Amino acid sequence: MSTKPAEQTHFETRLKQSAVETEALLMQLLSSQALEDEIARPENLTAAMRHGTLNGGKRLRPFLVVESAALFGGDHETALRIGAALECLHCYSLIHDDLPAMDDDDLRRGQPTVHKAFDEAVAILAGDSLLTYAFDIISAQETRLAADRKVQLISALARASGVGGMAGGQALDLAAEKKAPDEAGIRTLQAMKTGALLRFACEAGPVIAGASDDDRKRLRLFGEKIGLAFQLADDLLDVTSDAATLGKAAGKDAGRGKGTLVGLHGIDWAEKTLNALTVEAIDLLAPYGAKAEILQQAARFVANRQS
Fold it and tell me: Measuring CA to CA, which residue among 76, 97, 92 is closest to residue 22?
């Protein structure tokens, strides 16, 4: 899937600008200054939260929220806040995934993981705090959105991140270390652990903008496609890249005996399937014409990323 240089530059500019805006908002949200009805914010805990959140990254999930909202004329500042809430929840999951009882990682985005920079107890509490804060951000008065849309977003994010989504997927992932799942099991695990939050990111846009149910379903399906592509690309990188490039340990899935689609079918199959998923995702947005170009570029970016 080749990308024209001019299109790539435009896409990368939008992605970087969204990351800058998201980072600035997260810095503000993760201040040590207590909010109304908060008693105090312990400095060590907020420092750990910032360490696990303000550590770079492409901010793909907030970007997808912002661009999917823009496709339907949604308010930019509102989309940024929903994206920041999603990023808080995503970063909570990374902090907890890195713990010794889970994936036991020492590096995240090239920096010591939170439990290494602080300690395990603080890392657990930092993750807990980011998880709950995500829903605080969505429901807050500063998020200028009708109450019914806030409820829709809170419900969708809770289901994407809980027992039937990301957390359930992590449980299946841990179980896979003891007994490798079959292909159907791998697909279910990956759709839950990785795909559910990417699906939410794309579905959130039409909710923010008050778009039609058909638009919401189409963007949800688009999110499912790029969620599958993201995980497939991740599995490919795990066997073809190195820690210096990834900013985290490489080759861990094979080392732990975890089943992946790449392991089952090989690199050539994975690359062909990745291309097919990208085409399917792009085709889903064809009815929106040129307005969907950035999201279509996002699908290509997911498939072609190198870290």
Answer: 76
Provide the whole-model pTM: 0.92
Q: How far is CA 181 from CA 25, 45, 188, 236, in A?
A: 40, 37, 10, 18
Q: How many whole angstroms separate alpha carbon 60 and alpha carbon 48?
A: 22
Closest to 17 (Cα-Cα) out of 54, 66, 50, 51: 66
Residues 196/220, Cβ–Cβ less than 8 Å? no
pLDDT tens digits for range 24-44: 999 999 999 999 999 999 999
User: For the segment 149-164, what is each residue's pLDDT rounded down to a tens digit?
Assistant: 999 999 999 999 999 9
Closest CA to 138 of 69, 210, 87, 198: 87
Round to whole Å and give the CA distance between 126 and 132: 10
Residues 6+ apart with CB under 8 A from 254: 238, 239, 263
